[in-house]
Amino acid sequence: MTENILVIQTAFLGDLILTTPLFREIKKKYPGSKMTVIVNKGTDSVLEGNPWIDEIIPLDKKQIKSSIFGFWNFCKELRKRNFTLCISPHFSFRSSIMAFLSGAPKRIGYKTAGFSFLLNERKSRLLRGPHEVDKLLSLLYSEEERKNISKQPELFWKEGSVTGIRAEMKKYGLEKGNYILVSPSSVWETKRLPAEKFRTVSKQLFEKTGLKIVLTGGKGDLQLCEEVGEGFGINLSGKTSLPEMSYLMSGAALLVTNDSSPIHFASAFDVPTLAAFGATIPAFGYTPLASKTFISEVNGLDCRPCGIHGGRVCPKKHFRCMLEQDTGRMVEEGIRLIRG
């Protein structure tokens, strides 16, 4: 049977990237079906060019949260589309309400989602252990069926969307394999390796490998990236759209970052990844999926993890999970990842 499928994934950018294998597998399981994806407004361009998705609907979550009438009208419009199947990887109660009001007779999601009683096929989800992609694919397949399915995220771009970054790369002499990407920011402060440690690692990698150092981030990360790379780095913070970030990432020799979305960009292109984990832990399932990776962390701290996303400040006031990171080891591992 040909399905008219709705997928609701309005989570953070990294979560959306990790959902791309699910998009692929949905279309493989239901060939000939139409798939519409609702995403958080501002993240939609990361899915441009994705061959599995037929339509993307950006949702302004701030507007929806502030107006019950706006939310109701949005759901009314969804219902007119006559969806036959809704899959909701998102946990919020609004997503469950949206799934219910879409009118789709079959609604799949997690038991732990808010208002999950509005879903009629609820899947168990472990907090720790499996990778997030595996958890997402569990909405579609059994554990046995998932064994031979690729977990690698997929990112694409349209040629017209990357002309700007191509010009920037030409300007700075950036070519495939001759630069290291350093992304020092995170939405959550306790997931950020301190700027001085990023600077130490970046400068030593620059001196010991001869590769160019490129700093990336949002417009709000300009000063942070300047602090990290002053005197040796190329600061492209705030200068890349999401498709341009994909393009830039695809040519990197190494990514150095925190537990944040750049990890998942790198996984899509199998870019070697050096990631510092502080407040969060690898067991949550958001680790790099590239074939060559190293996770730097401070073991033996009974306060880790202090939250699924980290937080604004260290609840113990010592921030040892990041302040005690071994930059010497990080540099050694970074060189090893580059040289294979």
Keywords:
six-stranded parallel beta sheet, Rossmann fold, 340 residues, alpha/beta, 14 helices, 2 domains
Q: What's this, in brief?
A:
Helices cover 35% and strands 16% of the residues. It has 340 residues and is an alpha/beta fold.
Description:
- One of its GO terms (molecular function) is ADP-heptose-lipopolysaccharide heptosyltransferase activity.
- Pfam families: Glyco_transf_9.
- The chain is of the alpha/beta class.
- The protein folds into two domains: 4-146, 3-Layer(aba) Sandwich (Rossmann fold), CATH 3.40.50; 165-339, Glycogen Phosphorylase B (Rossmann fold, 3-Layer(aba) Sandwich).
- It is 35% helix and 16% strand.
- The protein contains 14 helices and twelve strands.
- The protein has helices spanning 13-18, 20-29, 61-66, 68-79, 93-101, 132-137, 143-146, 163-172, 195-209, 222-229, 242-250, 262-268, 320-323, 327-339, and strands spanning 4-9, 34-40, 55-59, 85-87, 106-110, 121-123, 179-183, 212-215, 233-235, 254-258, 273-276, 293-296.
- The protein has a six-stranded parallel β-sheet, sandwiched between helices. Strands 9-8-7-10-11-12 form a six-stranded parallel β-sheet, sandwiched between helices.
- Strand 8, helix 10 (222-229) and strand 9 form a beta-alpha-beta unit.
- Helix 8 (163-172) packs across helix 11.
- The longest helix is centred in the middle third of the chain and has 15 residues, at 195-209.
- The radius of gyration is 21 Å and the shape is globular.
- The mean pLDDT is 96.
Task: Map the helices and strands.
Layout: E1 4-9, H1 13-18, H2 20-29, E2 34-40, E3 55-59, H3 61-66, H4 68-79, E4 85-87, H5 93-101, E5 106-110, E6 121-123, H6 132-137, H7 143-146, H8 163-172, E7 179-183, H9 195-209, E8 212-215, H10 222-229, E9 233-235, H11 242-250, E10 254-258, H12 262-268, E11 273-276, E12 293-296, H13 320-323, H14 327-339
Parallel strand pairs: 1-2, 1-4, 2-3, 4-5, 5-6, 7-8, 7-10, 8-9, 10-11, 11-12
Helix pairs in contact: 8-11, 9-10, 9-14, 11-12
